[in-house]
Amino acid sequence: MRFVNNILQFRFLEAGVEFGRFFINTTSSLGFADVAKGKKTIVPVDPSGEDFGQTLGRWGIGHGFYVVWPFIGPSSARDTVGRAGDLFTDPFFYVYPWELATSSELALRFNALGDVLPLYEDLNSAAVDPYIAMREAYINFRNSQVKH
Predict the structure, then answer these.
(1) Range of the domain at 13
(2) Closest listed residue to residue 82, CA positions, set 52, 48, 50
(3) 133 and 95 together in one domain
(4) pLDDT value of position 97
(5) Whole-prediction pTM value?
(6) Which residue positions in the chain have pLDDT lower than 70?
């Protein structure tokens, strides 16, 4: 997904990094381990974390309305469409049943909840209006990722 989004954003160096990571991880561990993670090389091999929502933002599409999806979390109209685009560029979408893909994604999000929950509680306790604070934080975060 990151490779495709880097190509669509004309970020060819980052696309090359993604291809290099794929090549290193596939040849070294058949793709079962992230061997390229943290390696000191001439060209950095750390992933860029691009998604289709960022690609749409780079193309000039605004974020649209803010929404909080159950089990998914905060998003915008652009990022919701971006998630659908990411779904179709994910090879596992075509290989595994949707139930397996959905349950594994939910398990990963639940596992990451322990890292995010203290930040969320800090934001809620410090904000006058937690909804507006979360909305502004999310939109600013995504705008900074688009400008990256």
Answers:
(1) 1-50
(2) 52
(3) yes
(4) 84
(5) 0.68
(6) 31-48
